[in-house]
Specification:
Elements: E1 3-8, H1 32-40, E2 47-52, H2 58-66, E3 70-74, H3 79-90, E4 94-99, H4 107-118, E5 124-126, E6 140-143, H5 144-153, H6 157-160, H7 165-169, E7 175-177, H8 196-209, H9 215-224, H10 244-257, H11 261-269
Parallel strand pairs: 1-2, 1-4, 2-3, 5-7
Antiparallel strand pairs: 4-6, 5-6
Helix pairs in contact: 3-5, 10-11
């Protein structure tokens, strides 16, 4: 079964446009996408960028080729189909999904998830469903067959945008959760980039650790410097919701976070 890492990327991020092309650290001449590709190539020989066929992602393709990744271009909105077409083009049967806004992705974590999948018969392995790893080390391994099944079963474009969400939330898919070995929970550490606050923190991490570090180095850095969490601990992590009730419950949390108590009460009173 051929394994390939497929990196999801586009320039048209809604919260921080062109973040994948920002230098990391600033002034280094190496883009965030370049960092992700270089780190991914330590885990697997086959690394493919899956980006959109919009003209603005011509630069995304050029950047990926510069760092030795292969490229597939497809639908901007239907990311699930983009993944399926990528697998068809490159003969990928075991897909490792990572995103280009996680420049601390750890090759040891990727290898662990791949090894677990290789030694099992499950559809899906990840460290995101029961999260004990920091946000930004997200690694998912799914069979091509499971992606094709998802394509048949899931037609909501908002769910298809998140590729694996249908399989994650459907009990008929077999799954294994990868947990932090020492029993610790580091899910309160956020090392993904959606905002300028995230980007500022990422620059600090690269300045303080250099560019050859693993996630344990990051955990140690945050334990020694707990103030680092204050730089982006108010950033909202986007989710996909199964129903109206889930979305409203999350809206209440978001309104409370921003001290919008009157709006919060309106939602609570009208649920």
């Amino acid at each position: 079964m051929k394994t390939g890492i497929v990196i999801q990327a586009r320039r048209s991020s809604t919260r921080l446009k062109d973040k994948i092309l920002m230098e990391l650290p600033a002034g280094s001449g190496i883009s965030m996408l370049g960092r992700v590709i270089m780190r991914a190539k330590k885990a697997c020989d086959t690394v493919i960028l899956a980006t959109s066929d919009n003209i603005e992602d011509d630069l995304t393709e050029q950047e990926a080729l510069k760092y030795g990744a292969q490229v597939f271009r497809g639908s901007l909105e239907d990311v699930l189909m983009r993944y399926i077409k990528t697998c068809e083009k490159y003969g990928i049967e075991r897909v490792v999904r990572i995103t280009a806004d996680c420049p601390c992705i750890d090759y040891e974590v990727i290898k662990e998830c791949i090894n677990i999948h290789e030694n099992s018969s499950v559809d899906y392995v990840s460290n995101v469903e029961k999260r004990t790893f920091p946000h930004g080390l997200d690694t998912e391994v799914i069979t091509f067959d499971a992606l094709k099944r998802t394509d048949r079963e899931e037609k909501d474009i908002k769910v298809r945008e998140h590729v694996t969400w249908h399989a994650r939330k459907n009990d008929s898919y077999t799954k294994i959760d990868v947990l932090e070995k020492n029993g610790q929970n580091y899910s309160d550490i956020r090392i993904t980039v959606d905002t300028y606050e995230d980007y500022a923190l990422m620059n600090l991490i690269y300045f303080m650790l250099g560019d050859d570090f693993n996630y344990k180095d990051i955990v140690n850095l945050f334990e020694k410097n707990p103030w680092l969490k204050a730089l982006n601990n108010n950033i909202y992590q986007k989710y996909v919701f199964k129903n109206r009730e889930e979305e409203l419950a999350e809206a209440v949390k978001l309104l409370e976070l921003n001290s919008m108590y009157n709006a919060k009460k309106i939602i609570e009173d009208n649920k």
